Amino acid sequence: MAGLGTSLGSYDLSSPLIGASGTVGSLVDFQEVIEFSFYGAATTKSVSSEPWPGREPPRMAHGDTGMLNGIGIQNPGIEAWVLSHADTFASIPTDVWGSVVAHDIDGFAEVANRMAEAGVDAIEVNLSCPNLDGRPFAFDPKLSADIVNAVGQATQLPIGAKLSSDAQPISAVAAAVQGAGADWVVVANTVMGARIDPESRRPALSGLIGGYSGAPIRPIAIRSVLEIAMDLPELPIVGCGGVSDAAHVVEFLLAGASAVAIGSAHFKTPRVAKSITRDLNRYLKRHGISSVTELIGAYEPW
Ligand SMILES: Cc1cc2nc3c(=O)[nH]c(=O)nc-3n(C[C@H](O)[C@H](O)[C@H](O)COP(=O)(O)O)c2cc1C
Mutual orientation of helices 170-179 and 218-231 as an angle, nearest 10°? Predict the structure, then answer.
């Protein structure tokens, strides 16, 4: 594998950069502002079987150096999504990963099956969504494994399981989904967070608790990647959390990720992948490295 090419097991990527779910729109509507050719893959917003209306405003807020969101995974439901999106994938100049979400196991399987029929290249299972008891699936190794297993029955496509750094220990969930057939893990989704305005006494989000993302969660995501890479060295990892420049990408690779997803940075700099690609190539040249894969897990211990 030369230059920026990498792989997640037997699945090859032309670049280690991945567009993170929910931050690159429904892909086709971001074509004008994001150059998808700089990505190895781009992930759709998560889609459920029935339409989800999302939460009432406010559902986005500043979180000091990061951002808070409590969108509630608003989406039109799989049938409307297939009708409006399936024939747009061919125009996206990179692989399309379909992000699947549901409140129960059958829902995950159904959406994965429909997305596969619609022509996505891989399925990303968003385990951070709450189940019917209000607890994220990603906290429960057995439930997470059952979902991945059901998705595996529903499609032949490669499966990435998107985990939560709030799960302790995260390696236990990673091991469970690996055992159930996940081809890689995405590490990780937002960290649960909240804010309250001292003057109005109002929470920043209508849903009170939401997802915290951006620069402040990078060390948390790096810790999660390190733990999984140490405990499960054979399991490919997509690092995700607070990436906005090439140094951050290298940091995730050194921790053990084989690819790195960019999320919130798109809201500030939609074309961020272009400058990251340029700087990543400069980094490789400066260090005499012929392939990014040489960096995977290659941090120097003290
Ligand atoms: C506004 C917004 C919407 C998001 N929607 C989704 C989603 O639908 N599905 C999902 O798996 N992750 C979603 N995420 C999480 C991101 O894909 C990413 O995992 C997280 O933001 C951490 O990366 P970052 O710090 O680079 O943003 C969303 C994040 C944001 C900020």
Answer: 50
